[in-house]
Amino acid sequence: MKQTEPDFWVLEYVTITKDPRTDLVVAIGGTEQAADILQQAGGFLTAPGPRGDYHRLPHGLPLEQQRRKATAASYALLATGHSVHLDPALNTLATPDAERDATLHYLARLAERASDAETSSEVAEVLTEIAAPVHGLLPLTREVVVRAWIAAGGLQGAAPGEEPEPPTQLGDTANSLSRTAYLILLARNHAAHAAHRHEAALVPPGPALPPATPAARRR
Questions:
Q1: Could you tell me the pLDDT band of residue 13, with boundaries at 50, 70 and 90?
Q2: Using CB atoms within 10 A as the burial measure, which of 70, 133, 149, 169 is most buried?
Q3: Is residue 55 within 8 Å of residue 45, measured between CB atoms?
């Protein structure tokens, strides 16, 4: 007997996250019931957007207040059966070491992928994770070092004519990270091109075309 797919009573998905451009906490998706819960449990406001209404917290709220309201709204939604994704940075109930543990797990898994790589394409994928210009590990690490360098320079500057202190040498470290990421990208591109050439060599040649027949002579 042919089985049919069951009907699932799953409400529309709600995503609560922080917009990086405006620093506003926004909630996207959900039903009218979800909108009521967002307003009552979290103090969200309804606002018109380019693709319809969305919900956001008021302007100017301190970070901790944003986190408390977003967490309260998300758990109220979950309690009523809604599917919710809450940005971990906004979750006040998350364990302090959760993000660090996730990072360590990601790095360990990346090392395993590098060890288990059997093709140039797999090597290129691992190197992309490390040195991709925007979301690669090294560019993100460089961003952290640059911000620490700026902060350190404002907190303890060297006197005129004095040898630079280690914190101020972070600028050189940031440049070294950029150079390293560039070299890894070169290696990544080389591996990707090698994989492409290998795949092209595996493609069987097409059938030979029949010889062209001479044109009929005119009488």
A1: confident
A2: 70
A3: yes
In this structure, are residues 144 and 153 in contact, taking their beta carbons and an 8 Å threshold?
Answer: no
Distance, in Å, from the CA atom of 88 to the CA atom of 82, rounded to the nearest integer, reads 18
Better pLDDT: 218 or 56: 56
How far, in Å, CA of 123 to CA of 117, rounded? 6
Q: Which residue has tokens 């009573």? A: 9
AA identity, residue 36: D
User: Looking at the predicted structure, is the pLDDT value of residue 27 above 80?
Assistant: yes
How far apart CA 86 and CA 84 sit, in angstroms, is 6
Dump pLDDT digits (tens) for 63-84: 999 999 999 999 999 998 888 9
Closest CA to 138 of 195, 190, 188: 188
DSSP track, the chain: -PPPPPPP--PPPEEEEE-TTT--EEEEE--HHHHHHHHHHH--EEEEEBTEEEEEPPTT--HHHHHHHHHHHHHHHHHTT--EEE-GGG-TTS-TTHHHHHHHHHHHHHHHHHHH--SHHHHHHHHHHHH-TTT-HHHHHHHHHHHHHHHHHHHSPPPTTSPPPGGGGHHHHHHHHHHHHHHHHHHHHHHHHHHHHHHHHHSPPPPPPPPPPPPPPP-
Judged on CB neighbours under 10 Å (0-12, 13-18, 19+), 68 is middle
